[in-house]
Structure formats: structure tokens, C-alpha cells
Write a structure and sequence with these properties.
By secondary structure, the protein is an alpha/beta fold. Helix content is 43%, strand content 17%. The structure holds nicotinamide-adenine-dinucleotide and thymidine-5'-diphosphate. Belongs to the NAD(P)-dependent epimerase/dehydratase family. dTDP-glucose dehydratase subfamily. Keywords: Lyase, NAD. Residues 5-319 form the NAD(P)-binding domain.
């Protein structure tokens, strides 16, 4: 019976991970620590409500007393750190909370894990700290080439810089204290429970509500889209069998320009849901400051070491995703009814 401390498990990827793991394994316990910011929603975890193998704790990863208590109370084998402020646009407006949660929160988790796991003779058997990072730490690509694990870190936004800072602290705990750690750096995820401030769910939500679809700059920035379940599978494989101290890049082999994504979403909704939704909704707006041009991952290492590959093609994943949002309109309504409404109104004046 392995015990996981999963942080940020009420957010987009974290909740998908919790659901994936509890469906796959009946012999694990997950302690799910989440602050429930605007991006965290208990509704994402409805499927595991009442499951004795899932224990939800509302709290902050920066809270030393709380995290120490969790290590004392539960015999934690693995920490999987998803908790973060994750939206680039927000980081441009309010960088401080990104440094606080993403860097200092990570350091607090590392430190509490070290206090609980380190022995005079070495480290407790079988334990591991896993950091969920992003390909954005590598910066931006030109028209060719891919991010490799050996690519030097060159982050640009306050978000990606805070994630790079966290990665360096994880590396420091490995290099200095020999702490057993792994890091995954993934490309842009999409799928169910994605908060509708990020591109794909925002487009779906706005199409359904006949709102403008804001496209930053020329719409030709490229992202490499990864279906969230494929990402969860990769993390599970890395925690179980990834080599200690290593970084694994996880990518979907699904590079698309933003405008291609916009047109794909419009076309599906037009053909299957509402034929009044057309490309007239597209609105080119001012570019994001410091907007990274292209992200792209060659996930060769994780394929060779662990046999992982992205199973879900973009054509299949995007339909599954749009369909999920159509079937869960109340979820969108619920998660956007709080602070987000004001934020959205301020951003887009509507
Ligand atoms: P998200 O914003 O949807 O969820 C973040 C979760 O963390 C929320 O539930 C929030 O309540 C929680 N949280 C925030 N601050 C906290 C704190 N101080 N203490 C405890 N909990 C806190 O983010 P996501 O998209 O699910 O991303 C999860 C992780 O994956 C992040 O670390 C992010 O950097 C990384 N990542 C995401 C993507 C992506 O495409 N979404 C891509 C690469 C990497
Ligand atoms: P986003 O989903 O915010 O992810 P990230 O910035 O982490 O890659 O944005 C994906 C791409 O879509 C990025 O190039 C910015 C662009 N974008 C828009 O054009 N319009 C939007 O309204 C949003 C949210 C993003």
C-alpha cells in the first residue's frame, strides 16, 4: 500500500491524475493537499467522493506546520507536486504569487519531505519527490528543432521563470542532499476539468456563449498539445520506474498554431452543436507581452526508458474534450461564477 501526497489535486491536471490513479490502483492512498484557489474545484473530484483511499486536505503548500503534520500523520512514500499558479497572463499582471507558490511552496515541500525521509544512514527506502514542471522553462523555439532534456533553461514569463526556479531547487536537493527526485516537463495539456481561462476551454466556452474568441498577436504561435490522460500515465510511469535524479520531457507530438486550434473548435461546434457559430467570432487582440513563439517536445527519452508514448491523437482528443464541456455545462458555470467573472470582465471588457 503506497501513500501519495498529491498537491494541487483539485486543479486541472492534478484532479485528472487523482481520478486516473484511483481508477487504476486499489492499493494506494492519496492525500490530496490543495488550497482551492480560483483554479481548484472540489467538483473535479466528485467521482472519488467517499473513496476511503482519497483524503482531501484544504491547505497551502507554503504552510510548514501543515505539511509537517501531514508527514507525521501519514506514512508518505511519494510527493507529486502539481500545486502552482499556472496561468501566464496572470503571472504578467501579478508575478509575486507565482514566486510565492511555485518557488517557495516547492522549497517547503522539499524541506518537509527531507525532514521526514532523511536518515543518518541515507534516505528512507522507496521514497520519491516528483516535480510536475513545464516545457516553458526551456524558453521559445524557432521554426525547427525540439526541446530536449539537455536544452538549457531560458524561461521568459514570470510563470515559466518561477517554474524554472522550482526545478533548480529540486535539482539542488538531489545534488546536495542526494534526495530521490524526478522531474517531468510537459507540453500544453488539454482535456476535461481545464479551467476556462486557458486557450482551449476558453474557446469552447466562448463559442457556446457566442462571445468573441480572442487571438493574441498573429495567431501563429505554436503549442504542442498533450491529452491530459496521456500526461497522467507518463507521471505514473516516471514515479514507478523513472531513473532517480532524471528529467523526462513529455509531449504530445501535436504541434498546432493557435489559429488552427481556434478554427478546429469553431468547425466542430458549427457542424455538431450550433451552426450559427462561425469564424466571425474570431477577434485578433493585442499580443501577450514576451509571448513565446513555439514549444515542441521530442519525447524520445521517456519512450526509450519507459515505453511511454502519447496515445491520443489531437483529432480524437479535441472531440473528446469539446464533448466533455458540452456534457458538463454546469461545471463551467460553477467554476466561473466566483472571482473569475470579475477577472474576465477586466481582461476583455465584456
Ligand atoms: P491549475 O491552475 O488548473 O491547478 C493548480 C492547482 O493548484 C489548483 O487546484 C489550486 O487550487 C492549487 N494551488 C495553487 N496554489 C496552491 C498552494 N499555494 N497550495 C496548495 N494548492 C495550491 O494548474 P494545472 O494546469 O492543473 O497545472 C498543474 C501543474 O502542471 C502545475 O505545476 C503547472 O505548472 C504544470 N503544467 C501545466 C501545464 C498545462 O498545460 N496545464 C503544462 C505544463 C505544466
Ligand atoms: P494558454 O492556454 O494560456 O497556455 P500557455 O500560455 O501556457 O501556452 O495559451 C496557449 C496559447 O494561446 C498561447 O500562445 C497564448 C494563446 N492564447 C490566445 O491567443 N488567446 C487566449 O485567449 C488565450 C488564453 C491564449
Amino acid at each position: 500500500m503506497k501513500t501519495y501526497l498529491v498537491t494541487g489535486g483539485a486543479g486541472f491536471i492534478g484532479s485528472n491524475f487523482v481520478l486516473y490513479m484511483l481508477k487504476k490502483y486499489t492499493d494506494i492512498t492519496i492525500i490530496n493537499l490543495d488550497k482551492l484557489t480560483y483554479a481548484g474545484n472540489l467538483e473535479n473530484l466528485k467521482e472519488v467522493q467517499g473513496n476511503p483511499n482519497h483524503i482531501f486536505v484544504q491547505g497551502d503548500i507554503c504552510d510548514k506546520d501543515l505539511v509537517t503534520t501531514l508527514f507525521e500523520k501519514y506514512d508518505i512514500d511519494y510527493v507529486v507536486n502539481f500545486a502552482a499558479e499556472s496561468h501566464v497572463d496572470r503571472s504578467i499582471k501579478e508575478p509575486e504569487i507565482f514566486a510565492q507558490t511555485n518557488v517557495l511552496g516547492t522549497v517547503n515541500l522539499l524541506n518537509c519531505a527531507k525532514n521526514a525521509w532523511e536518515r543518518e544512514s541515507g534516505w528512507k527506502e522507496g521514497v520519491r519527490y516528483h516535480q510536475v514542471s513545464t516545457d516553458e522553462v526551456y524558453g521559445s523555439l524557432g521554426e525547427t528543432g525540439y526541446f530536449m532534456e539537455t536544452t538549457p533553461l531560458d524561461p521568459h514569463s514570470p510563470y515559466s521563470s518561477s517554474k524554472a526556479g522550482a526545478d533548480f531547487m529540486v535539482k539542488a536537493y538531489s545534488d546536495t542532499y542526494n534526495m530521490p527526485v524526478t522531474i517531468t516537463r510537459c507540453s500544453n495539456n488539454y482535456g476535461p476539468y481545464h479551467f476556462p481561462e486557458k486557450l482551449i476551454p476558453l474557446l469552447i466556452n466562448n463559442c457556446l456563449n457566442h462571445k468573441d474568441l480572442p487571438v493574441y498577436g498573429d495567431g501563429l504561435n505554436i503549442r504542442d498539445w498533450l491529452y491530459v490522460e496521456d500526461h497522467c500515465k507518463a507521471i505514473d510511469m516516471v514515479i514507478r520506474n523513472g531513473r532517480i535524479g532524471e528529467v523526462y520531457n513529455v509531449g504530445g507530438h501535436n504541434e498546432r498554431t493557435n489559429i488552427q486550434i481556434v478554427k478546429t473548435v469553431i468547425a466542430y461546434i458549427h457542424d455538431n452543436v450550433d451552426n450559427t457559430v462561425t469564424e466571425d467570432l474570431i477577434k485578433y487582440v493585442e499580443d501577450r507581452k514576451g509571448h513565446d513563439r513555439r514549444y515542441g517536445i521530442a519525447p524520445d527519452k521517456i519512450k526509450e526508458d519507459l515505453g511511454w508514448y502519447p496515445e491520443t491523437t489531437f483529432e480524437v482528443g479535441i472531440i473528446k474534450t469539446i464533448q466533455w464541456y458540452l456534457d458538463n455545462r454546469q461545471w463551467i458555470e460553477n467554476v466561473t461564477s466566483g472571482d473569475y467573472k470579475h477577472y474576465y470582465a477586466k481582461m476583455y471588457n465584456n
